[in-house]
Amino acid sequence: MTAPSLAALEQHDEFIGRHLGQDFADTAAMLAAVKAGSLDQLIAETVPASIRLSEPLKLAGPMREHEALAKLKAIAGRNVIAKSLIGMGYHDTLLPNVILRNVLENPGWYTAYTPYQAEIAQGRLEALLNYQQMVIDLTGMELANASLLDEATAAAEAMTMARRISKSKSNVFFVDEDCFPQTIDVVKTRAGFFGYDLVFGPAADAAKQDCFGALLQYPNDRGECRNLSEIIGAVKARGGVTAVATDLMALVLLKSPGSMGADIALGSSQRFGVPMGFGGPHAAFFACKDEHKRSVPGRIIGVSVDARGKQALRMALQTREQHIRREKANSNICTSQVLLANMAGMYAVYHGPHGLRTIANRIHRLTTILAEGLKAAGVKVLTEKWFDTLRVETTKAVPGYNLRKVSDTVGAIALNEKTTREDVAALLQALTGKPGDIAALDAQAAANSPLAGLLRTDAILTHPVFNTHHTEHAMLRYLKKLQNRDLAMDHAMISLGSCTMKLNATAEMIPITWPEFADLHPFAPADQTKGSLELIESLMEYLKAVTGFPAICMQPNSGAQGEYAGLVTIRRYQAEQSKNAGLGQRNVCLIPKSAHGTNPATAQMCGLQVVVVDCDDSGNIDIADLKAKAAEHAANLSCLMITYPSTHGVFEEAVKDICATIHAHGGQVYMDGANLNAQVGLTSPAAIGADVSHMNLHKTFAIPHGGGGPGMGPIGLAAHLAPHAPGHVVTGGPGAVSAAPYGSAAILPISWMYITLLGGEGLTLSTKTAILNANYVAARLNEHYPVLYTGSHGRVAHECILDIRAIKAATGIAEIDIAKRLMDYGFHAPTVSFPVAGTLMVEPTESESKAELDRFIEAMIAIREEIRRIERGEWPADNNPLKNAPHTEADMIGDWDRPYTRQHAAFPLPWVAENKFWPFVNRIDDVYGDRNLFCACPLHPDAGGEPSNTR
């Protein structure tokens, strides 16, 4: 036997073999099944020759896991972690380790998808309902959503919601000048494209304005806590809508916005245990009065019942969201911040109301001690009624601490959960030359609270969930109980089309909890953030190589935000061009009718008129219709939004001609990067002729979906657009689209690790394998479920659409019935009825093994045979395993009067029993849930019948 070479032995540890699901034998078998002689032949028959790259990606070779981690650790070491007391909506926190290990670091929580299939998502739905209840209690509102992207964009959403619900005919929106600077920056950007007139001034001036809405900050940027009741009443008396940006930790003690009459409350839940992370990700909260529920942006979790009358949770009122309403949607938000919302909610569950009051009182007491000590030493404290933030007439630096410099003479200090009496003594010593008598100052502070008359008197967090799980054992078991109700990628493949649910490798995830990255304030001094800036610059260079663009903007913190940032950039560029040339406004956006709902929703947010372009019978853009509409609107054509490969799962061969047509009529091409996983290393947005594109780092570049967020949507830009990309009030440049300069910077190490581990060749092989897997599934299932669209050589891209419409017409079995039946086989359904109603879209990523694909295929074929039994009349059309799916453990032990066996219901194939996943509830009644809307924690979560409002 010949000994292997050293080179062969060294290759054993390469990450590509861990990331891809197939070995050489599997690949050969799958190529035979799709009738391709080689992987390169398959790619040649799939990706048009006119757009294929002629050279490999200009990226370094692969790196082994321990080497990449060591390299990144060295980069992280360039960051300096001081005690940041800058505030501005970002505070250092103490994340309980039981939540750190069992939620943030747990693939059972972070690899799940948005809970569209609610029967196998009851765990995180309950966690999100806890979060909503927490927000409802603390804000004093009647309804809360399940999170938005950050506080600044939540404020912008409040502004547009105010316009929709306001009775005022005014075009003025008032903004408190003491809102956080980044919030004002984002609101300015959003208002500009809607054409709103912004007026800034002291909060009290809102009472004098004729405005459709007002945004107030409480506590404000100066640290002041003021009773806003009179201001709110005056604005509402004129028909205006009031939105209050606030702080959950402060609201543990302070009167709620709801008690003051506010219509909307919003803010960041970051300080409920979530690290600052150089700006994110953090869950923004958003709450309002019940009467405005149909205008609320984002997901809302509601209580319904299942087929047996058992209480069950689901996403409510989905008909108001972008995937349904498109250009008429209230918002383009798609991804939110579910994982971070769950962490914040669990922080409240673990600490409970007593624990939260202790934390909030400690922060406030230490702030008051600091204020009294400064005043005693002759330092002027400008803030009069504070919770945790002081403006002071000194800008002295304090070694080891970051304080905010407001002006040449004024500084600000914001204390937090980690602040100790020793910190206060150190601050006093540095700022006054004396450590202060902490005990004496404490006695003084306890007797003289500046918050007299502002403290809340109502009970908070009274639901049992916030008063039960306070020991670590209790919390651990509660988290495990919820985890067991959810199907995530730690259990099985999730083949959702257009979602790219690939491996989120452990090595990629490890760095996100390193303190060097996690504990960095987004506005920390530049000499303390060199490591993170090096990481971001390195990742930008990677993304330039992948996209072919010369510039990258890292600010957008979701795919929808990436779309928005891209169109904002185009509009700014065209506004300058039109001004210089004396031309009219370009305000028409062409969008294929197959586009994802975020595209038209984003276009309307940018003040664009949406013109829909038809698709032909093969699923491609109708070239004749495109050219006709481009010519018709040539004088006003802004852009085309195109997804590539298309949402129909094919590489359209005319894509370069499509882009050239738009350019010939003076427009720009925005490429939606949702399907970039089929391009990497084979073609690129620049190669097809696009001018700007976003990248879903939570799809193509391995950031996990977190059950519905976080995500990142940076954009790549052609050189002429780069100067017009979003900037930031803190770092400079045109107006911001997100609160932090680099969006959700804390999760960028994941994508950096992914690209570093694979290298250029590994990325390209991953793309080829994803295409192979999709074609394998299509080839195996086509005789059972027709594949709706293919390219000219009969190939699909990285996903395929299975047509269920003929089955439904013949049997009444719909795509949703197949989706629910797949749960009994242990699988999450593919994407249902998108982009074509009556279909299932399957995207098996490169990380799935042939064995897992074969199990899925076997399950789908078995379900097709079940449908044939219905066709033959062996089972009634309304009483069969599909219409009754999913089946629960309770079904197995209850009365059974169905025309098939319990064995067939729950264990339809031999291998199902080996790793059985039991749905926690039967099929949920969506209509009941929307007609009987209830979006807070019911008193008895597992009881049947009507929920009880415990608010």
Explain how this protein is built.
This protein is an alpha/beta fold. Among the domains are: 83-146 and 243-491 and 917-951, Type I PLP-dependent aspartate aminotransferase-like (Major domain) (Aspartate Aminotransferase, domain 2, 3-Layer(aba) Sandwich); 554-735, 3-Layer(aba) Sandwich (Aspartate Aminotransferase, domain 2), CATH 3.40.640.10. 38% of the residues lie in helices and 11% in strands. The chain contains 32 helices and 24 strands. The protein has a 7-stranded mixed beta sheet, with helices on both faces. The protein has a 7-stranded mixed beta sheet with strand order 15-21-20-19-18-16-17, sandwiched between helices. Strands 11-14-13 form a 3-stranded antiparallel beta sheet, with no helix packed on it. Helix 12 links the parallel strand 6 and strand 7. Helix 3 packs across helix 26, helix 6 runs parallel beside helix 17 (472-483) and helix 20 (530-547) runs parallel beside helix 26. The longest helix has 39 residues, at 338-376. The chain is globular and about 85 Å long. The chain starts with 5 loop residues before the first helix and ends in a 20-residue tail after the last helix.
Summarize the structure.
The protein has 32 helices and 24 strands.
Keywords:
951 residues, alpha/beta, Aspartate Aminotransferase, domain 2, seven-stranded mixed beta sheet, 32 helices, 38% helix, disordered C terminus
Topology:
Layout: H1 6-11, H2 16-19, H3 24-33, H4 39-46, H5 65-76, E1 83-84, H6 97-104, H7 107-110, H8 122-139, E2 143-144, H9 151-165, E3 172-176, H10 181-194, E4 197-201, E5 213-218, H11 229-237, E6 241-247, H12 248-251, E7 264-268, E8 284-288, E9 301-305, E10 311-315, H13 322-325, H14 338-376, E11 389-392, E12 401-402, E13 404-405, E14 411-414, H15 421-432, H16 438-447, H17 472-483, H18 506-509, H19 515-518, H20 530-547, E15 551-553, H21 559-581, E16 588-592, H22 598-605, E17 609-613, H23 623-632, E18 637-643, H24 655-664, E19 668-672, H25 685-688, E20 692-694, E21 715-717, H26 748-781, E22 800-803, H27 805-811, H28 815-824, E23 831-832, E24 839-842, H29 850-871, H30 889-893, H31 902-906, H32 926-931
Parallel strand pairs: 1-12, 3-4, 3-5, 5-6, 6-7, 16-17, 16-18, 18-19, 19-20
Antiparallel strand pairs: 2-8, 7-8, 9-10, 11-14, 13-14, 15-21, 20-21, 22-24, 23-24
